[in-house]
Structure to design on (333 residues):
């Protein structure tokens, strides 16, 4: 099935130019920095914009990556793609510039709440309050809301490539935000961030290495783009040109986990995990976790989204969202 990118949308060339020389933005207006989270390559800090008078979140590359040309380009792309995806289920970007050391930063809306991964973890641990606040119908609605952001991105020709519960934020007032467009790609364009698996510097699979360590090594090396537990077969197989159906597969994994409180493809190591993603159909969620009273119709939606053949999945994210909404309406609150 031949699929082409939308005629209008985000232009890849418009997300990559370097910032002009000199000071860009007014970094000195930000005060009261407090570290929020530190990832493998970037730092998130809460700070106060004393000109506008509001608290924001600032994202910057860690010092050892701040001078890396490829990481700078990826960082700029993340900021610009996120800024152009103006949707109720994405986070607004406020500013883009350089800090007092000449390193690039961008600021975003400060969101209060909890990521979906932590919510599902509490349910797995038997936390009664979380179980009461997030019955199966509500969990389906959270997935559907996040998928609306994906539908909007797809309309602009952008594939997220890292759809997972950690990147879904549920706000204090019920708002759902899909975060982290750091490895998003513009549909139909060559993926200049993914290293050729035949590259002699590529990291080979080693079954003796624990899964999370393997994941970290492979993604840092650039051999894999995405999080292995949530990758589509196309991503695992290294397809260079992905469309929205890859994100539909990732959203199917999120739905499965939201229903069964269990990942569908986790193996003993990364090789086994990938083999399951490519070859093994998962057990239907309502059979995997009967204790959660999962409607069989919801299981059917998850399994369709997780079809190995992209042509057998939902063909658009809006189609997937409609199916989720329909089944959520049938569930008793």
């Amino acid at each position: 099935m031949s699929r082409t990118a939308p005629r209008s949308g985000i232009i890849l060339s418009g997300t990559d130019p370097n910032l002009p020389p000199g000071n860009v933005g007014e970094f000195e207006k930000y005060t009261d920095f407090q570290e929020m989270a530190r990832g493998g390559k970037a730092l998130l800090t809460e700070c106060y914009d004393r000109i506008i008078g509001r608290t924001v979140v600032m994202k910057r590359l860690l010092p050892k990556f701040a001078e890396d040309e490829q990481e700078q380009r990826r960082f700029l792309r993340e900021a610009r793609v996120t800024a152009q995806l103006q949707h109720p289920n994405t986070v607004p970007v406020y500013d883009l510039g350089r800090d007092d050391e000449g390193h690039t930063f961008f600021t975003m809306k400060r969101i209060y709440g909890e990521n979906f991964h932590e919510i599902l973890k509490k349910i797995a641990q038997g936390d009664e309050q979380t179980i009461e606040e997030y019955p199966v119908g509500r969990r389906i609605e959270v997935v559907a809301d996040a998928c609306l952001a994906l539908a909007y991105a797809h309309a602009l020709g952008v594939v997220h490539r890292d759809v997972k519960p950690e990147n879904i934020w549920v706000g204090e007032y019920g708002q759902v935000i899909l975060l982290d467009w750091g490895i998003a790609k513009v549909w139909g364009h060559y993926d200049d961030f993914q290293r050729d698996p035949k590259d002699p510097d590529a990291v080979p699979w080693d079954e003796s290495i624990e899964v999370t360590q393997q994941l970290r090594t492979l993604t840092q090396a650039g051999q894999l783009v995405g999080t292995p537990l949530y990758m589509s077969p196309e991503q695992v197989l290294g397809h260079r040109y992905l469309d929205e159906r890859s994100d539909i597969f990732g959203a199917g994994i999120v739905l499965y986990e939201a229903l069964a409180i269990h990942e569908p493809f986790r193996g003993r190591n990364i090789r086994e995990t990938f083999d399951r993603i490519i070859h093994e159909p998962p057990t239907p969620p309502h059979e995997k976790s009967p204790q959660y009273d999962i409607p069989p119709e919801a299981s059917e939606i998850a399994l369709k989204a997780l079809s190995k053949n992209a042509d057998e999945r939902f063909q658009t994210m809006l189609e997937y969202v409609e199916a989720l909404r329909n089944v959520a309406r049938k569930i008793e609150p």
About this structure: The CA atoms of residues 286 and 294 lie 5 Å apart.
